[in-house]
Specification:
The protein is mainly alpha-helical and 123 residues long. It has six helices and no strands. Helix 1 (2-16) runs antiparallel to helix 2 and helix 4 crosses helix 6 (112-120).
Length: 123
């Protein structure tokens, strides 16, 4: 009976602090939820054809005329300062996955002040 009360109090505390991640984690513990692992059905012989058709729809040629460039409505260049780059780095979510380069958001957030100057050059 004590374990149920502790778990109930834990869920209520997460609700009060608006910690939805903690609420769902507690519910998964109570219900013994393991998640659903999905995999591609490789036994389907028509899968390669379906994938080819899907990819081919993006490669279709269009025969329309290009829109002429109107030089009167030129968009001004984007200006991003160093403080904005640092601000964006500091607001990254630590729980997100690393990018294709293997750099985690936590690392970027931790080193925001040191690296914002060098990253700013790309903008």
């Amino acid at each position: 009976m004590n374990a149920k009360k502790v778990q109930k109090d834990h869920i209520e505390q997460n609700f009060q602090t608006t910690n939805s991640r903690g609420v769902w984690a507690s519910i998964e513990i109570i219900t013994h939820y393991k998640g659903v692992k999905r995999s591609v059905d490789t036994d389907d012989a028509s899968l390669p054809n379906k994938l080819n058709q899907f990819c081919a729809q993006f490669e279709k040629e269009t025969h329309s005329q290009p829109v002429p460039f109107n030089q009167g409505n030129v968009t001004p260049p984007v200006s991003i300062d160093v403080n904005y780059v640092q601000y964006k780095f500091e607001r990254l979510n630590d729980r997100k996955a690393a990018g294709p380069d293997g750099i985690t958001p936590k690392l970027l957030r931790t080193c925001a002040q040191q690296h914002c100057q060098s990253i700013h050059r790309y903008f």
